[in-house]
Design goal:
Blueprint lengths: L1 H19 L9 H7 L4 H5 L5 H4 L7 H22 L1 H22 L8 H17 L1
Helix pairs in contact: 1-5, 5-6, 5-7, 6-7
Amino acid sequence: MILLVNFGLYAATALYSANTGQGGWMGIDGRTLYQFGAKLSAAVFAGQWWRLVTAGFLHGGAFHILMNCWVLFELGAQVEEIYGASRMIVFYLAATVFGFFASAVWYAGISVGASAGLFGLIGAMIALGVKY
């Protein structure tokens, strides 16, 4: 499901970006990413907290989404098998929110991608390895 959301939003941002003449399938412009919900510290601290979630489902280019979704496909299947689908989604979303909050605190610029959520899944697997 997360993969579908990622690819759906990538298609929407790529089409929008191509129509504005600022980007396209290989690279999405920053203005389009911002309009679709990218993390920008000023916006987050002005009350647009939803950007901490939406930024995790946006990607800046074709290579970016392909690499993130490949890792999500491989790692997500393992986490889902061990913890279940509901817990995997909670891990992913919690890590996304905390990761983009940390990004908002330490980096003022625009930021997108699934890496924060993926690191949360990696953390879940490390926790399992430490426990057993």
